[in-house]
Design goal:
6 helices, alpha+beta, five-stranded mixed β-barrel, three-stranded antiparallel β-sheet
Length: 241
């Protein structure tokens, strides 16, 4: 069966002598793997850049339910995030977000609203100038709402601790021990109530940004126990330190 889909590229790995396997997320089919033969050959290698994280492609592929990988027939570029890959900081964020998405999105589980959020975020990020260093934090917070554990807003400033199990702010440290300290909780409260357009107004040192990001990943791991170690986290810390 031949299928067509628009998809966001998440991650790729080498396959055999000249092929690659690409993880993508599409509006129609959720996350799935595509085998692309010959992509690392001299003739086709120039197209490999188009299968980097956050490129948006229109795909035509052969689908067979019994296969864990589908075979790509042809593709075209729906959106090329040129500014992302012209900026070292943006490209590092793209790799990081692609790795997170590969880990948290389930295969064969379409979610049109989630796909639209990801594509719209990619387009915004590509053109983003202000608040760039905070984008990945704002993105993860937005993503959590589509994954079923959207954090609540802080209604009272006396609620100084973010309870990561229940996703709410509380006045005292919860007994289960999974909470953020008052400083990180205050920063999270600001992020939870802002938008991409205003995320740059949250001023952070490199150390604080690292702490906020690690807290968010811990929050994700509590609600998604299968979350893998994010290998690109160390690079993110170096880039924004």
């Amino acid at each position: 069966m031949i299928e067509k889909a628009r998809a966001v590229v998440l991650h790729q790995i080498k396959y055999g002598d000249s092929g690659i396997v690409v993880q993508v997320y599409s509006r129609e089919s959720g996350r799935h793997s595509l085998l692309i033969r010959g992509m690392r050959s001299k003739r086709s290698g120039k197209h490999n850049v188009l299968f980097q994280p956050l490129f948006i492609l229109d795909l035509v592929y052969y689908k067979k339910e019994s296969r864990s990988m589908q075979v790509l027939k042809e593709f075209s570029v729906a959106y090329s995030p040129l500014d992302i890959y012209a900026d070292i900081k943006k490209s590092c964020i793209a790799v990081f977000l692609g790795e997170v998405l590969s880990s948290v999105l389930r295969e064969e589980s379409p979610h049109p609203g989630l796909y639209d959020f990801i594509e719209e975020s990619v387009r915004y990020f590509d053109g983003c100038k202000a608040g760039l260093a905070n984008f990945h934090i704002a993105f993860l917070i937005g993503l959590s709402s589509y994954l079923g554990f959207e954090p609540g807003y802080r209604d009272n400033i006396s609620d100084r601790y973010f309870d990561m199990v229940n996703g709410i702010f509380v006045p005292f440290p919860p007994v289960h021990g999974n909470y953020a300290d008052p400083v990180i909780s205050g920063i999270l409260a600001d992020f939870f109530s802002t938008t991409y357009d205003h995320m740059g107004e949250i001023r952070l040192t490199g150390t604080l940004r690292d702490d906020v990001l690690e807290t968010l990943l811990r929050y994700f791991s509590i609600h998604l126990p299968g979350l893998k170690k994010i290998n690109s986290l160390g690079i993110m810390k170096e880039i924004f330190s």
